[in-house]
Design goal:
- There is one protein chain.
- The chain is an alpha/beta fold and about 400 residues long.
- It has two domains: about 5-45 and about 290-390, Aspartate Aminotransferase, domain 1 (Alpha-Beta Complex); about 45-285, Type I PLP-dependent aspartate aminotransferase-like (Major domain) (Aspartate Aminotransferase, domain 2), CATH 3.40.640.10.
- The chain has helices spanning about 5-10, 15-30, 45-60, 70-85, 100-115, 130-135, 155-160, 185-200, 230, 240, 255-265, 275-285, 290-310, 340-350, 375-390; strands spanning about 35, 95-100, 120-125, 140-145, 170-175, 200-205, 230-235, 250-255, 315-320, 325-330, 350, 355, 365-370.
- The longest helix has 21 residues, at about 290-310.
- It is globular and about 60 Å long.
- The chain binds pyridoxal-5'-phosphate (PLP).
- Pyridoxal-5'-phosphate binds next to helix 5.
């Protein structure tokens, strides 16, 4: 066999691929592992999206290539969503691009902007694809410290005072945040856009949890900030908003220049989605009311509250999430870091969690648990973890 490309030597295996392989091995050995690791919604998508998929797939004329920019109707539906949800006017022809899930867009944006020696500014705790995308493109992530005290928001003033690394190109932000559940104010986005404008960066706002929020909180889009349509691109996703993670549908919205750069990469790499998926996405946007989202979010909120209550007795200090699908807890047991805690919980309680270190250097003391498991399984997980932590004391 030929030698692997150099990029595979610098690119680590994707953390969740490693975790799921480990869980599969334990399952194969006959153990029933409860998965609190990945954020794959357990509840069904809106019924109209499924019906539209079926009727569209049965229609003729829907089975050919759908075009590199997706269908015009889908792009218009994305623009309508931004108008109705955030009051922002988006040009569906130049400022919207459908994605095969937002992860794809994140990595391809990196290929569009990052060369050898270039730098992506990445929060010290964040979704792994920001750093992986930079590495895959031959560049480097530069981690900006984030702390619980500062609400897991990067301190842009401190970064400016220290000086940015040479050849910085992208600034990644993600609120409501995976893994912490932290949210960002409009003022934060205003500052972030102006920061990017001053430093000739593209603000990349990864926003798949914008409609998964708790306690009545309504999350912002980065594109609401002045000048954002010149200096920012945002990624939205049907995975979490409409429980459609397996459908692989998302969109990039924002700067026409960035959208065009992303299209240049993508049109050389993929040929768009199956048209019925776009049709189902339109139906999800247009026919899902706020009540459906509120009821779905209330189920997650109850699960969140259960975990918040029990975490201290498991040796974890929780950060109360305002959005997204996770409980982020600092390990308070002396001598144990997040990875060691996760390993023990997996081996001894047969509950799988994500170690904080996979989200970056500021995450090592933490673990992440997902609320994407049916209530009865979550109760069972809490039971197992409680019995395990009693044995540890
Ligand atoms: C912050 C964040 N961005 C992007 C994604 C990728 O989502 P998608 O299913 O749209 O690719 C995830 C998935 O968990 C995520 O948590």
């Amino acid at each position: 066999m030929p030698a692997l490309a150099n990029r595979l030597h610098t690119l680590p295996a994707y953390p969740f691929a490693v975790i799921s392989q480990r869980v599969a091995q334990l399952n194969a050995a006959g153990l029933d592992v409860i998965n609190l690791d990945v954020g794959s919604p357990d509840m069904p998508p809106p019924v109209h999206a499924i019906e539209t998929l079926a009727s569209s797939a049965a229609a003729s004329g829907k089975h050919g290539y759908s075009g590199y920019r997706g269908t015009a109707n889908f792009r218009a539906a994305v623009a309508d969503y931004y108008a109705n949800r955030f009051g922002i006017t988006i040009d569906p022809n130049t400022q919207v691009l459908p994605l095969l899930g937002s992860k794809e867009g994140i990595v391809n944006l990196s290929l569009a902007y990052i060369d050898d020696g270039d730098v992506a500014l990445v929060p010290g705790i964040g979704y792994p694809a920001y750093a992986m995308g930079a590495l895959m493109a031959g560049g480097q992530p530069h981690y900006i410290p984030v702390t619980e005290e500062a609400g897991f928001l990067p301190d842009l003033d401190a970064l400016e005072a220290r000086g940015l690394p040479a050849n910085s190109k992208l600034l990644w932000v993600n609120y409501p945040n995976n893994p912490t559940g932290a949210v960002a104010s409009f003022a934060f986005y205003e500052r972030a856009v102006q920061f990017c404008k001053r430093h000739n960066l593209l603000l990349a706002s990864d926003n798949p949890y914008v409609d998964v929020t708790y306690d009545g909180y309504i999350a912002h889009s980065a594109l609401e900030a002045p000048d954002a349509l010149e200096h920012a691109i945002e990624f939205i996703s049907f995975s979490k908003t409409y429980n459609m993670a397996g459908w692989r549908l998302g969109a990039a919205v924002g700067s026409a220049e960035a959208i065009s750069a992303l299209l240049q990469v993508k049109s050389n790499m993929d040929s768009g989605h199956f048209t019925p998926i776009y049709d189902a996405g339109i139906s999800a946007f247009k026919q899902t009311d706020r009540d459906w989202l509120a009821e779905r979010n209330a189920v997650y909120e109850n699960r969140r509250d259960l975990l918040l209550e029990v975490m201290p007795s498991l040796g974890l200090r929780p950060y109360k999430p305002t959005g997204a699908l996770y409980l982020w807890g600092k390990v308070m047991i002396p001598g144990l870091d997040g990875a060691q805690y996760v390993e023990l919980a997996l081996n001894e309680a047969h509950v799988s969690m994500a170690p904080g270190a996979i989200y970056g250097p500021d995450g090592t003391a933490y673990v992440r648990m997902s609320v994407c498991v049916p209530d009865a399984r979550l109760d069972e997980a809490v039971d197992r973890l409680s019995r395990w932590s009693q044995r540890m004391k």
